[in-house]
Amino acid sequence: MIRWIWISIALVAAVAGLLSFGDNYLLRLATTVAMYVTLAVAWNIVGGFTGYPSFATAAFFGLGAYASGIMLVNGVPLGVAWIGAGVVSTVFAAALGLAVLHLRGHYFAIGSLVVADVLREVTNTWVSFTGGGMGLNVPLVGGAAAAQARFFLISMAILAVAATLTAIGLSRSRLGVALQCIEQNEDAAQVIGVDTRRAKVVAFAISSLFIGIAGAIYASWTTYIDPSDVYDVSLSVKPIIMALLGGVGSLAGPVIGAFVFLGLEELIWRNSLEFHAGILGLLVVALVLFLPGGLRDLKGRSVLTWVRDKMKGRTL
Question: Domain span at residue 108?
């Protein structure tokens, strides 16, 4: 807990510094990082704690974005629209969980992946309600551009902290213990009396709450959304990669992974625009292959020290 207090202090100091001295580029980058920290931590509640490889992040994100956008267009206050979007995503996730969480392994992964495609098609088709493929213009938040940038950074950072604190509390609760039992051996968990279906649905719903609100904040931040953007498969894949980089199932892993992945992505994109996707993909594959437990496997050692220790282990 002391470690998390120091991490929280450092993050608050970093955000305060950005709010005081950051330019538009840094504010936008920091907001993006906070958004993906939220998505990665939320995914980890299902994919890490429970061991169910969910690809439904894009579905909940897009649903939250459109739910909030439609409410704002119809005059609903901003805060109410954001919370309402979270509620919509949570209810949808609970219903979806009852339908698909009996599946396991790659069957569940495929089932969850299809959900975003279905929602994208519904959004494209329901033109009178969603704007269809033409997208939806979301009302602007009042204030100067600099003030807006700071507002959305604060909003997304608060959401990221809330998601992280929820994950910490969840890991230490009875529900967290039930999820760990499911991850280790679901059949055995059922034998000892764990209500596995209920535990999985609740975890799915909690995860979707934060993802849906992240989508809502994103919609207001960008002021325009369309189905191909908010239901993009990268919104499902990137949080998984981030959790893998940091360490799936750990509390700090998704947070560390989000910072590392987006830092690498930004660095490579700025220096190698044409090949950044390929280079980034190779780096991620290498990290996953050689550090299957994520960056937490380093345990404070440098990469060179870790490699040397591995080589010594092989020669013994």
Answer: 1-232
